[in-house]
Amino acid sequence: MRNRNLWYWLFLAPALLALALVVILPLAFGVYYSFTDWNGIRTPSFVGLEHYKALFAEKEFRDALWFTTKFTVVSVFLINFFGLSLALLVTQKFKTNNILRTIFFMPNLIGGLILGFIWQFIFTKVFASVGELIGVEALEGWLSTETTGFWAMAILMSWQMAGYIMVIYISFLEGVPQELLEAAEIDGANSFQRFYHVTFPLVMPAFTVSLFLTLSNSFKLYDQNLSLTGGGPYNSTQMVAMEIFKTAFVENAMAFAQAKAVIFFLIVAAISLTQVYINKKREVEM
Amino acid sequence: MKKKKQSRIILEILGIILALIWLSPFYLMIVNSFKTKREMFEDTLKLPDVFSFENYTVAFERLDFIKTFFNSVLITVLAVAVIIIFSSMAAYALSRRGGKISGIIFMLFVAAMLIPFQSVMIPLVSIFGKLEMLNRGGLIFMYLGFGASLSIFLYHGTLSGIPKSLDEAATIDGANRFQIFWHIIFPMLKPVSVTVAILNIIWIWNDYLLPSLVINKPGMETIPLKMFFFFGEYTKQWHLALAGLTIAIIPVIIIYFFLQKQIIKGVSEGSVK
C-alpha cells in the first residue's frame, strides 16, 4: 500500500513544498507576527491586539484604504464598460477585426511599472505641452493634485486592462447562438433589446470572471501606483499595497506593517468571495 | 439592408479611431525618444527634426541592456519550465488518485490564489533570508509557489477529461507512473501547457516587486528592476528615459506580433476556466 502511494507524493512534493514555504508558512508566520513586537530581527514577544487598534487610528492607513476603495469602484466600472464595449465592437464582422483586437490587448503585455513610467511622461509633459498649445491651464501639473492623480491612475488602468477584459467578453460573445439573435430580430427587437434580453444574460458568466479580476487587480494595485504617482503628492494617491510596503521597508515597522497586511488579506478575500457568491447566484437565476 | 451596411462602416471607423487612441501612448513614447531635450521642450506632439539614435546608445549602455535582458530571459524561462513540470505532475497526481486528501490539497492550491502578495511578503523575505535563499534560485522557487495554484487549476480541469482507462491500459503493458505521465499524458496536455506558459511568462517577465525584494546583487537585475533604478537616475532627462522604455518594450512587441493568436487565445482560455 505504501509503495502504491509513493508516486503520488513524489509527483506532488515539489509544488506542495513550494506552496507551503512561499505562501502557507509566511501567511501563518505573518498572522502570528502581527500580534507581536517583531522587528525582523529580535525574538518577538506578544503584544496582543495593539497593532490592530493602532492601525485603524492611523490616518495614513485609513486614507490609503479609502483612496483604494474609491479607485477600485471607479476603475472596475470603467474597465468593464470599456472592455465590454470593445468586445461588442470587435465581434462585428469587420475586416480589421483581428488587428483591432491585437492593438487593444497590447498594453497587457507590458509590465505595470513600465506602463506607469510611460504615462507619467504623458501626464506631466505631453499634457502640459498640449495645454500650452490650446491654452488650457487645467492640463498642467496633472500628477500634482489628488484628484487629477486619481483620474490619471484610472485612465492608465482602463487603457491597460480594458483589452484583457475584452478578450474574456469576446470568448463568451462568440458563444451566443446567432439563431437566437436572429429570432429576436424577426420578433421585432431592436439592437438594444437584443443586447439586453439575449446577449447580456448569456455573457453573465464573463461578467463574474471580469468583475473578479478587475476588483482584485485594482484593489491590489502596486506597480502602476509606484511608477505613475509614487503615492504623491504628500501620500494623497497612496494605495494600500504601497502603504504596507512603506511601513515595512521604509519605516521598518515590521510587525505593524504585517498587521496591516493581515487586514488587507481579509478585505481582499471578503470582497472576492462575496462577489463570486453573488454573481454565481445571479447566473443560476438567469 | 443598406442602412445596416452603413452603420457597420461607421462602427468600423469608430473602432479604428479607438485603436489609434490606444496606440497613442506608444507613439508619444517613441517619437519623443528621438528628440533632444530642447526639442522635446518645444513640442511633444510633432515628429523630431532628425531621427538621432544618440539617446538609444546612451540608454542601452546605462541599462546594460544585453545583460539585463539575459537575466530576465534566464529567470523567466527557468521559472516557467519549473512551473510547467511540477504543476502538471501535481495536477496529475491529484486528479488520478482522488479521495479526500487530494480534494483538500487541491482546495488549498485554489484558495492560495486569494492571498494578496503583500500579506505574505514580509515573512517571506525573512524566512528566505534565514535560509540564505535570497538569490536567483530562491526567486525561481518562489515563482513556483506563487504560480502553481493557477497552473494546477488549469491542468486539473483538462486532466479530469482524460479517461483513467488510458493509464490502466499502460499499466498492464508494464509502464510505471513516470513513464505513463511523461510519454502518454504530458504530450496530451500540450494545449494547456501553452496556456500555462503564456500566462506565467506575461506575469513573471513583468514582475517588479518580488525581484526587488529578492535580487540584491548588482548585475543580476531583471528589466523592470533595472528600469526602476534607471528612472530614478534620469527623472529629469526624459529623452533618455523614453529611449530606455522603448528598448525594454520592443522585444515584447516583436514577439507579440508573431504569437498574437496564441497569446490572446491562451489568455482567454486561462481566464474563462
UniProtKB/TrEMBL annotation, chain B:
The chain crosses the membrane at residues 9-30, 69-92, 104-128, 140-159, 180-205, 238-259. Residues 69-259 form the ABC transmembrane type-1 domain. GO terms for biological process: transmembrane transport. Keywords: Cell membrane, Membrane, Transmembrane, Transmembrane helix, Transport. Pfam families: BPD_transp_1 (PF00528). It comes from Mesobacillus selenatarsenatis. It is found in: Cell membrane. The keyword Cell membrane applies. One of its GO terms (cellular component) is plasma membrane. CDD domains: TM_PBP2 (cd06261). InterPro entries: MetI-like (IPR000515), MetI-like_sf (IPR035906). It is a multi-pass membrane protein. This is Carbohydrate ABC transporter permease. The keyword Transmembrane applies. Coiled coil: none annotated. Belongs to the binding-protein-dependent transport system permease family.
